[in-house]
Each structure stands twice: as structure tokens, then as C-alpha cells.
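Working notes for the structural subgroup meeting. M.R. asked for a predicted model of this chain before we commit to crystallization trials. I am recording the input and output together here so anyone reviewing the notebook later can reproduce the run.

Input as submitted:
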Amino acid sequence: MKRFFNTRETIVTEALDGFLRSAAGRHLCRLDGYPDTCVIMQRAPDPDRVSIISGGGSGHEPAHAGFVGKGMLTAAVCGALFASPCVDAILAAILATTGQAGCLLVVKNYTGDRLNFGLAAERARALGRQVEVVIVGDDIALPDSTTPRGVAGTILAHKLAGYGAAQGWTLARVTEFVRAAIPRMRTIGLALEDCNPYEPGRGSRLAADQAELGLGIHGEPGAQRIALAGADDLMRRAAETLEASLPTAMPDTRFAVVLNNLGCVPEVEMALLLHAFSHVPLARRVSHVIGPAPLMTALDMNGFSLTLIEMDETITAALEAPVQPRAWPGMAPLGQPAIVPMPDMPDAFPYPATHNPVVTDLLERGAKVLIANEAPLNELDGRIGDGDAGSTFAGAARDIIAVIDRLPMNEPHQLMTTIGNILTQHAGGSSGVLFAIMFSAAGRSTQPWRQALRDGLAHMMECGGAKPGDRTMIDALHPALATLATGGTLQQVAAAARKGADSTITMHSARAGRAAYVPSEYVRNVPDPGAEAVARLLEGLARA
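Returned structure, recorded in C-alpha cell form:
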């Protein structure tokens, strides 16, 4: 696996200094104790407020330093990757931030964290500081465990503690508030891949058809291996496990849910997962959502976690309160998407449908050719582009065939206009809109339909900026439509398209389209996918 780092030993200190240089860290500072003491703290902590300190091993970013700021943590103590910080580092954070109001340590329920933070608290008390400790154990992956792990619920504990401190509560009141809230939290994680803590040669323990349910935040195996499935099914599995952990005596309790990105799930998939959660039975008991966002991650783990917290008036106020750290995503009601009516759009079918078996057969045969070539064209496009050329052409074919009974088959200009309208509505990618431009312009032309298609191509070239020789689909379209306009047969048109498509193989650089950004060595000996699609389409029609 390729990673951006210098040495494993310097990852944490270099990353923390980078964080402090960013806009998200400008309100913070660090203690001058590198490399053993990595403490990120507020620049001017209020000695009259309870100091809230948390921390643990690094690799969980934005936890823990990302949550330092007004309204949340006073300081974060960062250990090495997945390793608890040392006692002296924790003690230094206590001494640097704690005044008469005292200090609360928020600790995840791992042996190293409990021991190091606990001993640091004892030493601080011996020096005259008021220090309390709360242990977060929100993981429900192993229901019978007497020491559940502290995972994403720890961030909720940061938020609740920071709220109490900001209100000016006493140390005893803040501690009791957080300690009472921790049993009201529960978390389950699900991942498609475990993480790699910068270990050369490490492979995944999961097969391609497996996922893992009930895993922690350090790459340890989950409680269950489950079959890979669609997002809806995986979310349902996680939510059912979480709901099964709820006491039966609380059917009317309302919850907030945290949707946490465990590391490398793309934002589009995290948003999709929230949509999936909205359809599970548990969602009916959830009033608010926090995220989706990375809160407590596990380096590059490809997974998510769900955390429930039972709501009451004070917890709701605490979670809604604004805070300084940018990593806190805020809380919002979990409701329906806001929808407004569509404006009146032009009619995509402005002409009455007419029937012509020859034209209908032509369209159907062409669609079959494009759909049959979807995978080969995608594979070809993947060598020089984003691998979706075949899907773009096949999708357009499916869209046209889906409404074939509504097309004006006996009027070529009306048919071309309607096809342009359909592509405008549905077709994706640059190829789709370029063909929409071509057919729309052809439909407006006053020339007979053969010459009208050539007029449409001229407008496409004007809008798209490509011309013959630029290594695009124009290299197949231009000779094909020129042959058609001069009365050529379909076989002659297809031969012209094939010759044009083949010519792109020897063009060592593209001057238009996405391939224009690809170094010449990648396009050498590879035909342009758009030109190849045009050639295959016309060849398929000619054979018929």
C-alpha cells in the first residue's frame, strides 16, 4: 500500500504540527515536549472552568486533537499510532491546563489508556490538583463482555463534558453528567476492509466476498464475519445488532445516532449509508443525527460505525450547543429530504408518435450493439480514462429504447430533435451531451436528413472544440457522416467510421477530451473509446 509518510516514528509529530498550521488548528498550541510529550491544547484555557482532557493512540483522527477547542476538549494527549500516551505526557497536560476548578479525564476503555491516565490522575492529585476520571465503554460487539471498548461514543463524551465545563459547572457535576450518560451510549462497527497501521506487506484478512461486523478501532478482528451485500442490507444488519442491545423496557425512548466514517469511505457512500439507515426500523426511534463524518477513525479502515445515545433535555442541549472545533459536525433532526416542485420543463416529446418498422428496427439493432459492447468499451476506456464510455453509450441506448413507442419514426427531423431531447434528459458524461447537441442541431437543420446530421456534427464540433485529428470520436463520426451526406451506403459509412477509429491508434496524443490530460505513453496503440463506439455501432448496423 502506498502511503504519504516519511518514517513511522515521525508520523504523529509531523502530522500534529501540520494540523496546528492549518485553519482548523490556529486557535491551538502544543507543549514543547516532542517527541515523548504530544499535547495539543487551547492557547489560553480558562482556569475558572473545569479542564476536559482526553487522548490515546494516534491514528483515530480527527480524534483526539481535532476536538480541542471551546465547548469541547481543553487538551488532547496523543500517543504513537494505536498506542497510549505515557504517564508523564498526560500529567503534563493536566498541569498545563488545570486550575482551581479541576480536571476531568475522558478515557477510552482500553487497558493501556486506563492504566496510564489513571496513574497520571493519581500523580496529579498528589500534586494538589482536583482530577476525576470517566471511562467510556460504548462498544456492544461482544454483549457479554465486562470491559466493552471505548469507540466513537468517546466523542459524545467529549461533547457532553465540554458543554458542562462551558456552563461553569463544578467538577463533580460535570463528572456525574458524563458518567451517567456513558451507559446510555452504544456503538457497533462494520467494515469491508481492516486498516493497515503502516506495516509493509500486510494484507487484508477478509476475502473479496466478506465484511466484518463488530470490530474495534485498532484493526483487531470483528465479532463476526458476514457475507458482503448491498449497502441497504449491510446497514440493516448493523442497525439490527444495535437495536438488539437496547433494554426492552425503553420502547418510547428517543435517540440520536452518530454515523461515523472509520477511515476511507468516500463521502458519497457515507451519505448513501445515512439514506440506508433512514429506512431501517431503528430509524423510527431516532430523532437526531450527528454526521456522517469522520469522528473516531481507524486510519484507512473502509467501514462505518453507528452510535446511539438516549436523549433527554440536557443531553439534547449539550449536543446542539455550538463549539469551536471544526471536526464536530453538529447535530440535526433526522427527517425527510426537503423537496420543492419541479419547474415546468419543455416537452421532450413535442411531436406525435408515428410508426415505421424499418426505422424502429434500425434503432433497436443499434441499441443492442451498444449494450453488447458496454463492457469491452468500458475496459478500453479504463486504459486511458475513467472507464465509463461503454456505460455512457449503453445507457443512452437503453433510454431511447425505453420510449421507442413514443418516437415520430416517419419524420427524420422530428425524430432527431426528440432523440436530442431524450439525451438531454438522461445521457451522462461529455459524450452524451455532445450527441444531444448533434441531434438537436440536426433536427433544426433545413437540409435533408443526411446533410442535417452533418450540420449537427459541425455544431457539435463548434461546442466541444474538437476536430478531426484530435483523437476523439470526431475521427470516426466526421468521415462516416461525410460519406452518408454524399449518398454512401451503410456499409460504406461503417467502413469510413472504422478507418477513422483505427487512425486514432497511431495518434500518440489527444488534443481534446479527457485523454488530452493523459501522457502519450498511455494512449499509444489504444483506439479512442468514443471513436471505437461509433465504429462498432455502424458496423453492427451494416451487418444487419
